[in-house]
User: Fold Glutaredoxin from Duganella callida.
Amino acid sequence: MAQVTIYTSAHCGYCSMAKRLLASKGVIANEIDAGASEATWQEMMQLSGRRTVPQIFFGARHIGGYDDLVKLDRSGQFDAALAAA
Assistant:
């Protein structure tokens, strides 16, 4: 199974919802607190091109934020995207 990484920050409702969705799919994600340091936040922005959390990656593939994750799941492409990573 591909490594899943999720950049989060404290008190982020969308982060919590994304982690719940991943867990419901049996995915154990590597969680990185983007708010822990400026360097970590900059790393997330460089990798994703975005300034908001959560930012989710299946392997090296950037999935996007919570809305993107839900869209991927509802389209039926979640498992294929995870397997391809």
Q: What stands out?
A: The chain is about 45% helix and 20% strand. The CA atoms of residues 48 and 72 lie 17 Å apart. Residues 4-84 form a domain with the Glutaredoxin fold (CATH 3.40.30.10). The two ends are 8 Å apart (CA to CA).
